[in-house]
Amino acid sequence: MASAKPEEPTSRAQAIAQVAAYLVESGVERTQAQDDARAMLRAAASLTRLQLAMEPQAPITDEEADRLSRYAARRAAREPVSRILGERGFWTLDLVVAPNVLDPRAETETLVETTLALIENRDAPLEILDLGSGSGAILCALLSELPRARGVAVDLSPDACAATSANLARCGLANRARIVRGRWGESLAGRYDAIVSNPPYVRAGEIPALDPEVRLYDPALALDGGPDGLDCYREIVADLPRLLKSDGIVAFEVGSDQAVGVAALLGDKGFGVARVGRDAGGHERVVAARPAPGRS
Length: 296
Ligand SMILES: C[S@@+](CC[C@H](N)C(=O)[O-])C[C@H]1O[C@@H](n2cnc3c(N)ncnc32)[C@H](O)[C@@H]1O
Description:
The protein is α/β, with parallel strands linked by helices and about 300 residues long. The protein has two domains: about 10-75; about 90-290, 3-Layer(aba) Sandwich (Rossmann fold), CATH 3.40.50.150. The protein contains eleven helices and nine strands. Strands 5-4-3-6-7-9-8 form a seven-stranded mixed β-sheet, with helices on both faces. Strand 1 and strand 2 form a beta hairpin. Helix 1 packs parallel to helix 4, helix 2 packs antiparallel against helix 4 (about 60-75) and helix 6 runs parallel beside helix 7. It is an enzyme of class 2 (transferase).
């Protein structure tokens, strides 16, 4: 049986190879296993990418090997590297990844990108609402690009609210944001220039088939979108006429086959699609809309 601990590695490169082989045995895809082993070695030995690239044959210390071994055991249990190391890059920011809070995904950057593309004046004092803020990734990214904007982050999960708060502080944005623990826009008054949301959208019946990295480590509250995956969109869209300014924009992240369904929900409430954003895989990942002309 393979051991979590690399067997007396003599070099960084050997340690990476041993950990990668161990991860492949545990079911991690080969290229991913290589990337993960490299990232964990870099963290265990406090190395920059450049240092590792320049001296792959340098030996690792016992202490580094022990640390790497602990990381490898967790990764073999299919915990994502971002959770093991406690942080991930999102947009231009380094965010804390907290237990019991959704690990922000690269495709969510498409929501940030699409929203920014629809904002005509980035220096305006915009009011932004992030529904289901999780780690706070979306709001942090938007506030970092909109120097005079202010934001409200809402989440039902206390752990998510704490993570949003930690990330806003880490990014130096806490003084421009407020966090509300609650159900979508229920307790909010006032209207917003931009409402953004990446709500739970996985069909309930599909959750058992998700990768272990998601199923075992992301909270169910962040995943479960009900029988057809659209329950949360229905709830949020019903409240948009009350919460969105008449010249405001709403932007949703959607599952890879949900853009048409979400556009239809918006259309039923008097919103016209302004832009559809595609992720790096070419999937329609974001639906952004505006109130149709004439709607107050
Ligand atoms: C898919 S995660 C998105 C997290 C984060 N915005 C991101 O993109 O990484 C959805 C978030 O919605 C929150 N949530 C689920 N149901 C909610 C509700 N009824 N009201 C407010 N937040 C809710 C979850 O706790 C979770 O943090």
